[in-house]
Each structure stands twice: as structure tokens, then as C-alpha cells.
């Protein structure tokens, strides 16, 4: 008696392949959308950090040492307290906390150079499994004041 072979049906294999491809495509779209949102958020923070560093350098160069030591040839020394206060005033005046909820900042003064680091959580439009709930994006800027 001849042996009959059963033919295997491949019905459903194409559907599984299409569904798998659609899932991968949706994940790729989510990554691109979230990366774009994070990039735009960082660009806004970079602009804010630039302005804050310039305001801090301007406010921190009080020139109090000019009265005792004369005008320096290269750069004015920064007063840490005045620089930090100028950065806080700048952030308040620009409405940075309303634009970037959860904003935090750090001001570092090293002689004649002021560095400002701002950070804020970003709400990503799409949720990717395994990604953080509220990732934090940061930007840094530095400035110095030179006598004109």
C-alpha cells in the first residue's frame, strides 16, 4: 500500500509575517517620534541655557574688583552669588518653569567662566515598552565677559 503524504498547509504564515512586520514598523515609528520630541525639547533647553549663561555672566561680572585692582586686560572675574541670582532672574523672567515643568538648573563659576546646566523631564508622545516613564533631557552652556 502506498504511503500518502499529507500536504502541509501554509495558510496563516503570511498573516503572521505581516502582523510581525506591522509591529516592528509601529515600534520604529514610535522611536522616531519620541526621538524627535526629545531632540526638540533639548533644543529648547539649549536656547534657555545659552540665555541663562549670558545673563549669569553679565550679572556675575559685578566689577567690584575693578575698583580695587583696575580693569583687567582679558576677562572680568565672576561673583558666584550674583551670577546665580542673575540666572534665577532670567529663568523667572522668561517663564522657563511654565515652558519646561520640572526644570532644574545648576550654576558653576570658575574664575571668569560661568557654566549653566538646565534639565527638565520630557513627556514623550508615544510610549515604548521598557522606556523610562519621564526621561530627563539636559543642556549646558558657558559664557565669559571680556572688557570692551
UniProtKB/TrEMBL annotation:
The chain crosses the membrane at residues 12-33. Keywords: Membrane, Transmembrane, Transmembrane helix. InterPro entries: Tad_N. Residues 12-58 form the Putative Flp pilus-assembly TadG-like N-terminal domain. The keyword Membrane applies. This is Flp pilus assembly protein TadG. It comes from Nocardioides perillae.
